[in-house]
Structures are given as C-alpha cells and as structure tokens.
Write a structure and sequence with these properties.
The chain has 205 residues and is of the alpha+beta class. The chain has helices at 15-46, 55-60, 63-76, 83-86, and strands at residues 5-10, 93-102, 108-118, 122-129, 132-144, 148-159, 169-177, 183-191, 197-204. It has 2 domains: 5-86, no CATH class; 93-204, Lipocalin. Strands 1, 2, 3, 4, 5, 6, 7, 8 and 9 form a 9-stranded mixed β-sheet that branches.
Length: 205
C-alpha cells in the first residue's frame, strides 16, 4: 500500500503560521464554549432543574480537542478555500500525461495518467502507464509569482509483469504548473536501474 508523504512548501505561507492561527482560534472558541455551557447549565438550575456541567463535556470543548478538530478540517478541506493567502495550489485530481523518453538509446513517446492526492500536510503523486507504475517518495512545492507553481518530487518506478525491457528504478521529476492549474510541463531523470530522461506535458482531466 502506498501512503501519502509530507512535502515542503517554499514561497508560500509557513505551516507554523497556520498552526499559530488555529491555536488562537481554538483557544477563543474553547473559552466561548465553556462560558456558553456554564451559562446554559446555570439557567437550567435557575428553573429548578438539577444540572451540573459534566467534566467530560468541558473536556470535549477544551482547546486541545478543538485544535485537533480544526487542524484536521483545515488540512483536509479548508486550505483549498484560501489558496490565494497560503500560496499553496490544489493539484489534487487526475492529469493526462504525454511523455517523451530520451537518452541511453531509448527514444519514444508514451502516455499515462497521473493521480495526485493532496492535503495541506501531505501529498502523493502516482503515474500509471501501460508499461509501469510509479509513486512519489518525497516532494516540494515552489511558488513563483507571475509564473506558476513548480512541483519537484522523487519517485520509485516498478515495471508491470512481462516488461522485460524495463527495470525497477528511481528517478526525479520537476513540473511547472500554470497559474490556472490546468496544465503543466516538465522534465524527468531516471537512475539506479534505468539511465534515461525525458519531457512531460500534463493536462487536467
């Protein structure tokens, strides 16, 4: 099973800044929730209802619990709504890839499907072709103002059964996505089992 991995971000909002903002928000919401719950139970007591704030209820609105919930929501969904602030592009989805292999006596065109699974903290880039599959092991995103977003990642490639001309290998790829995040162009380089390089063009499906 291939797991998503963390990735570094350069040129955008620092993750530490996001963490501090969520900490402040969680603290504020926790305090407000405790006050509202206390007032609600006090009001019930005034009407003759036996009511005390259970410790477990207060623990559920503690800053730590709220921080965890808020960060999870931000990591999975909310970061996509403020991309202009974070400078972090949403590359998740499927992309049609047209590639051209060069070097080491291997020249030829190929096509495949790239699937990107991305959250605020983690990412996975997978490529599937008729001959092989590959998946990223580390990655970095760069924001270049007025140009676009550059994704650089290392990957492991595994040939499909029956592909005797291919061998397991490692490689690296760098893609430049346009500002509209509809297409990308880049290059890749292989090693440790296959000495080739080439170009790639992506179109969002």
């Amino acid at each position: 099973m291939q797991y998503n991995h963390e990735y570094s971000v350069l040129g955008g909002m620092k993750r530490s800044t996001v963490g501090r903002c969520i900490t402040v928000l969680a603290s504020f919401l926790s305090g407000a929730a405790v006050v509202l719950l206390t007032d609600a139970f006090q009001l019930a007591s005034n009407y003759g209802l036996s009511a005390n704030v259970p410790p477990t209820v207060l623990s559920l609105v503690g800053a730590g619990v709220l921080y965890t919930a808020l960060y999870w929501a931000f990591d999975q969904f909310c970061w996509k709504w403020i991309r202009r602030v974070t400078k972090l592009p949403d590359l998740s989805g499927e992309w049609h890839c047209e590639g051209r292999t060069l070097g080491d006596g291997h020249v030829g065109d190929w096509d495949g499907k790239i699937t990107i699974v991305q959250s605020f903290d983690k990412i996975k880039v997978s490529l599937s072709t008729k001959q092989s599959t590959s998946s990223s092991r580390s990655a970095a995103l760069f924001y270049e103002e007025g140009i676009g977003y550059r994704l650089s990642y290392n990957y492991k490639n595994e040939p499909r059964i029956g592909e005797e001309d291919l061998a397991f290998h490692w490689g690296c790829c760098e893609l430049l996505f346009d500002v509209g995040l509809t297409r990308a162009d880049g290059e890749y380089f292989n090693g440790h089992g296959r000495k080739t390089f080439g170009t790639m063009h992506l179109e969002r499906v």
